[in-house]
Amino acid sequence: MDSNFVHEKGISRIDSKTTKGWLVRGYKNGKRYSKLFSDRKIGSSKEALSQACAFRDDLSTRLKAIPSNPRAKKIVYRDSRNSTGVIGVSRLKKPGKNGKMLEFYSVTWRPAPGVQKCTSFSIGKYGESGAFKKAVVCRYNGLEKLHGRDIAIRVVGEENVRKYVMGEADEA
Fold this sequence. Notes:
This protein is α+β, with helices and mostly antiparallel strands.
């Protein structure tokens, strides 16, 4: 048997100076399960592969029996690179078609894994504070639909929610 041409799912060939054998790996809930089947300890590469296949099949059955724990959603609340004070809201500049520099607030959010949505609010059209307010409200509404009010307030910031989303003006 030529071990270079064996392709078994979950089984890899290890051929180093000190180790020769078949490595079986399986994953479940972020944990790795593995076992090496050494040619020398078992007697031959062919027999080691046979035992590795049997172990792999048994491991697969055992892993299917373990309940899946879905990954917790990672929600970013703070980022030192953010200059607006609201995660997902950025102030950007780019040249327009006529060469004039356009300034705007860009808003991004992820309604589903692997899906990103974005929109922008022109500073030229709405003014600095108007564009920022619209961006914050947009970000808050997107987060509230996805994660609920408490998460949206934590990400956008309680002060920003009071000031922009709820429309409460500062008395100071």
